[in-house]
Structure formats: C-alpha cells, structure tokens
Amino acid sequence: MTNSDIARSAVARAAQHAPPGRYAAPAGHAPPARRAVVKGLALRLIAPVLVCLGLGVTYLAAFQHPQPHRLEVAVVGTTPEAKAVAEAVRGKAGDSLDVTTVATRQAAVEQLTDRHLVGAFLPDPAVPELLVAKAGSSATANATEAVFRALAGHQGTALKVTDIAPLTKEDPSGGGLFFLLIALTVGSQVAVLVLAPAAGALGMRVRAALGLAASFAISAVGLLLAGPVFEVVDHSYPAVGGMCLLYSAGVVAVGLGLQTFLKHFTPLALMGLFVMLNLTSAGGLMGPELQNGFFRWLHSCWNGAGFVEGGRGLLYFGGAGLDGHLLTLGLWLAAGVVLMLLAARSEKRRTR
Question: pLDDT confidence of 30, banded at 50, 70, 90?
C-alpha cells in the first residue's frame, strides 16, 4: 500500500468517526447544494438591479428637465391691440405656448374651469392680469405665470395673478390626490402578491373575489385618510370612494391575470406598469404640459392619470372632464377582467 493510499484511508476513517457537521469539504470546493443556493440568489438579485435601472430611467426622464410645451393660454380681448399682444406673446414664447384669444374675462374663466386653458392674460397698460387655476397643476400654473411675468417686466409693469381655482389650505401643494394614488397603488400591488401563492390551491374565481374584497378595504382606508383624517378630500366622498375602488380593482385584476402567465416575474411587471410608467405620468408632481412627448401620451391613457385628473375635476372644477377619466379607469378594469378570464382558462387547461 502506498503512502497516498494510507492517507486517504485515514481521512475516510476520521470522517466516519467525526461528530456531525465537524468534517467539511476541502477548501475551494463548496457542496453542490450550497452552490445551487448561491447561484439562485445571484439570479434573483438581478431583479433589484432592474428595478433600480427602471426607476432611475423613468423618473429622471419624466422629471429632470421640465419644459413648457404648448401650454394652452389665451389673451382676453377682441380689439386690434389684444390681437397684437397675442401675436407678440406667440412670437416670444415659440412652442412653449399655444396662444389663442377669447372675447371676455368671463369666457376665459369658463374655459379655465372646463380645463381647456391653463392661463388667460388680460392686457392692461397699468395693471395686466393673469388668470390661472392652480388646482389643475401648481407646476403648470407657475410655469405660465413665469412666462407672462417676464412679459410684463419687459413692459415695465407689475403682473396681477388671480387664481380662479385655489387649492385648500389642507393641501396647499396640490399633491394630496397623488399621495393617495401612491397608497392605493402599493396596497393593491401587495394584495396581488399576497394572493399569488394561492394560485395552485384556489381557482381564479375565488382569488378574484378575495382581490375585490381587498380593493374595497384598501379604498375605504384610502378615503378615510384622504377625507376625515387629513382633509385632502373635503366633499364628494362617495364619488371619490368609487374612483378609489375602480382604480384599486383595476390594479388587482391586471395583477391577478398577469400572475398566471408571468409567475415570478409578476412583481417586476407590476412595478413597471404601476410605478415606473403610472406614477411618473399621473400629473401629480408635474403637469403633462411640462413633460416630454412619451409621458404626455401616457398621461392621456394611463389609469393613474385618470384617477388624479378625475379627482381634481371632481373636487375643484365641478366635474369637468370626469366622464373621460372614469372611462379610462373602467377600461383598465375591463382589461384586468379579460386577463383574469384568459388566466382562468389557461389554468383549467393545465389542470386537465
């Protein structure tokens, strides 16, 4: 017997008589089970990197460099002087303003209330006046004011600014509805993730019922906080509560439908749909008029924008544009229901 054979025999006998857990594999050779765990964790850690990348790209692209883009404003008056002012404003502002004229101050106020305008300028040699509606978007109103304040400064006069739709003292920044949207979004996404492990044990019908119940609870909590607790919503509780439910149920329905097909990638998909693209285009921090074309397009059809703009129209503008925003929320819910029906059909086929 060679020396190497004697050494191997001694090591084998030592391993047999050693207490459990005391004998380890040689350095540099991890057990196969441990290597598999490390490899699995390494693959899963790609997800937070992708989340960081997605959030960084979308939020920086949406908010880093706001620029006015064709803000809908009007010059009040039908005289040649008023038309000359409109032409002058149009020439100086370029693509940042879309300038029209309206006949009277009352007509300008009506168009601001209907949210067809973001500002109306009343030229006056002594005290020029700008009408804005900060409840529609404080950032957009401030951008409009900056343009016309510079114009008045060139004329050597002080600009009077009149807000025809002021924000409440409980929500001076106008971000209350947006923060409510964030709460509803996160709560609804967590509801989907809680229901995901039950996919093998419970049918889609039961999971959908549980998801709807969760949406009712999430909406009730959101309305309670935004209403009586923080007074962001000071009237129209049933209508705002209905919008909360429409939005939450839409997120839950889309999530439950996608989970059947995407499995472990569902959290990433929900993050992309309802955080990266949804919150950036909702108009809560910045009006779409100050964002690039991609986010302006998202604002026209995404459910977060439907909730925020619908809520603003309901609370501050007498319901202006509410029908269109409710349609947006309803279409997202309908898309979620269709996804759930397709998922239920797929699950039945797999079971068979």
Answer: low
Neighbours of 310 (CB within 10 A): 26
Q: Name the pLDDT band for 27 (thresholds 50, 70, 90).
A: low
**Cα Rg for the chain, rounded, in angstroms?**
29
SS (H, E, C) the chain: CCHHHHHHHHHHHHHHHCCCCCCCCCCCCCCHHHHHHHHHHHHHCHHHHHHHHHHHHHHHHHHCCCCCCCEEEEEECCCHHHHHHHHHHHHHHHHHEEEEEECCHHHHHHHHHCCCCCEEEECCCCCCEEEECCCCCHHHHHHHHHHHHHHHHHCCCCCEEEECCCCCCCCCCCCHHHHHHHHHHHHHHHHHHHHHHHHHCCCHHHHHHHHHHHHHHHHHHHHHHHHHHCCCCCCCHHHHHHHHHHHHHHHHHHHHHHHHHHHHHHHHHHHHHHHHCHHHHCCCCCCHHHCCHHHHHHHCCCHHHHHHHHHHHHHHCCCCCHHHHHHHHHHHHHHHHHHHHHHHHHHHHHHC
More confident residue, 242 or 147: 242
Residue 308 gets the label, from left (phi > 0), alpha (psi -120 to 50) or beta, of alpha
The model's pTM is 0.87
Within 10 Å of residue 294's Cβ, how many Cβ atoms? 14
- Average pLDDT estimate for 189-196: 96
Residue 7 in this model has a pLDDT that exceeds 50: no
Phi first, then psi: what are they for 137, rounded to 5°? Answer: -175, 115
Neighbours of 203 (CB within 10 A): 14
Q: Which of 65-69, 177-181, 303-307, 317-321 has the lowest mean pLDDT?
A: 65-69
Residue-wise pLDDT tens digits, 303-313: 999 999 999 99
